[in-house]
Design brief:
The chain is an all-alpha fold. The protein is built from 13 helices and no strands. Helix 4 packs antiparallel against helix 5 and helix 9 crosses helix 11. The protein is globular, with a radius of gyration of 25 Å. The N and C termini lie far apart (66 Å). Keywords: Hydrolase.
């Protein structure tokens, strides 16, 4: 039987989170809801959740605050969607999700909500945070140092987190120089694999090299995911500059060649340096 819809709440612009929860309940109603929404499950919605998180990050990187407002709404909808499906299956509710995260934040900030002093450095606060999280993992019977690092994370981000976890128990190179030496070793192995091994073995060696590169970022105090995202943005910006310069010549990239585009790339870089010097 179809559930009664709270039309007053659904049409109330000031209905807040309860309005959104009611909208999702109606969309998922098996008798009167949206056929597409009714068919979805956790697995089918998960890719959208990841996509929305990246779109939030993209809006922040572009400092597009109106766009960020919309993207945060889209991301919030993902939480509402998953909790609606969980409630239908009897797993948990939106209220329990809110309660759990609220309890977690209070427990992890004893220097704000408890008796501990706030007079500590950021480094000490980070160490305390990690100690609290380690105790939480122990309570969950997560015995292995790497347990709990989400498999669904982007591979570069997961590599970074795995390496941080291993470093906490002493499994780490002493310095960045040691990591750089390992990169040289892995690069040589990749070249050898390319010339003598199968494609799957080449892929394995390539993965090893990328994994060590992520570790170098950690040793340098960098977030590899952020660094690569910045490199992607820089490449996109500069290639657009090359296309603009080609357009001034009445050409497109497919009407050019590598030598010309490489020279224009250098010109774009020079333009950027000149603009930065003026600032």
């Amino acid at each position: 039987m179809a559930r009664d819809q709270n039309h007053d709440l659904i049409n109330d612009p000031d209905g807040g989170i309860e309005r959104l929860l009611e909208i999702m309940r109606c969309l998922r109603d098996p008798d009167t809801g949206c056929p597409w929404d009714i068919e979805q499950d956790f697995d089918s919605i998960a890719p959208y959740t990841i996509e929305e998180a990246y779109e939030v990050a993209d809006a922040i990187e572009r400092k597009d605050w109106p766009e960020l407002e919309g993207e945060l709404g889209d991301l919030l909808l993902q939480s509402v969607y998953h909790t609606a499906m969980a409630e239908e299956a009897g797993h948990f509710t939106f209220a329990s999700v809110v309660r759990n995260i609220s309890d977690k934040m209070v427990a992890r900030h004893p220097h704000v909500f408890g008796d501990e002093s706030r007079d500590k450095s950021a480094a000490q606060q980070t160490a305390d945070w990690e100690a609290i999280k380690a105790a939480e993992r122990k309570d969950k019977a997560q015995q292995g140092a790497l347990e709990g690092v989400a498999i669904g994370l982007p591979a570069l981000l997961r590599a970074h987190k795995l390496q941080k976890r291993a470093a906490r128990v002493g499994f780490d190179w002493p310095s960045a120089d040691d990591v750089i030496a390992k990169i040289t070793e892995e690069a040589a192995e990749l070249v050898e694999a390319r010339d003598t091994l199968t494609q799957s073995e080449v892929a394995e060696e390539f993965g090893d090299l990328m994994f060590v590169m992520a570790n170098l970022g950690r040793h340098l105090g960098l977030e590899p995911e952020e660094a690569l995202r910045a490199a992607n943005a820089k490449f996109t910006r500069r290639f657009a500059g090359v296309e603009a310069k080609l357009a001034q010549r009445g050409k497109t990239p497919d009407q050019s060649d590598l030598a010309e585009m490489d020279a224009l790339w250098d010109a774009v870089k020079a333009d950027e340096r000149a603009a930065a010097a003026k600032d």
